[in-house]
Amino acid sequence: MFDRSKFRVSFLILLLLGILPGCATIVKGTTQSIPVASDPSRADVWVDGNLRGRTPVDLELKRKRNHLVTIEKAGHQSKSVPVVKDVGGAVWGNILLGGLIGWGVDATSGAQNNLNPKSISVKLEPSIEKSAAKQETQRQATFVQKLNELDELAENQKVTEEEYVRMRNALFKEYYPEMVTPPAE
Fold first, then answer.
1. Whole-number pLDDT of residue 82
2. What is the Cα–Cα distance from 57 to 38, expressed in whole angstroms?
């Protein structure tokens, strides 16, 4: 026999699950804390061209974007570290449990992403030639800019998933070959 009260309760539970915000948005949030340290300490920390504090510092960075963190101290060579987004492993669980609405919320807010590296610690070397350090910082800024442009193409569906992966890998090979993981055999 059909029990209407159980059906109504089940329907309400499913309806609530479908309209709740994404799981990652609730659990992880749209920002990620990245601790930054340097030797020597008390170095200026810049994120995407904006001064954000002095080392040691915890940066709250938006998960939706790639970032360039630059650490500078007078009399020392500056160091820049790209902080790049990667889709987190909870995406599939969110799609299964939260449905497409939950996944959509997480994708739009960036909450489905993890930022890497998870922490930054650099040793600043005494200054040698400022032009070489400036060129390296510019090269890293160009990498992050190209990565963000590629992400925008993917978000606007101007490239396929396969093209996105291929182009992203090509950028890493060009700018940071040491970060490229060899394909599984």
1. 94
2. 10
Distance CA 125, CA 113 (A): 33
Cα gap 172→143, rounded to integer Å: 8
Classify residue 117: in a domain, yes or no. Answer: yes
Residue 160 domain-assigned (yes or no) = yes
Q: How many domains does the chain have?
A: 1
Tell me whether residue 182 is in a domain: no
Closest by CA position to 43, among listed 69, 68, 73, 70:
73
- Please report whether residue 33 resides in a domain: yes
pLDDT computed for residue 85 by the predictor: 83
Backbone torsion region of residue 152, taken as left when φ is above 0, otherwise alpha when ψ lies between -120 and 50, otherwise beta = alpha
pLDDT at 20 over 80: no
For 140-151, what is the mean pLDDT? 91
- Convert the pLDDT of each residue in 70-99 to its tens digit: 999 998 989 999 999 886 555 444 444 544
Segments forming the whole domain that contains residue 151: 19-177
d(CA 182, CA 185): 9
CB 123 within 8 A of CB 75: no
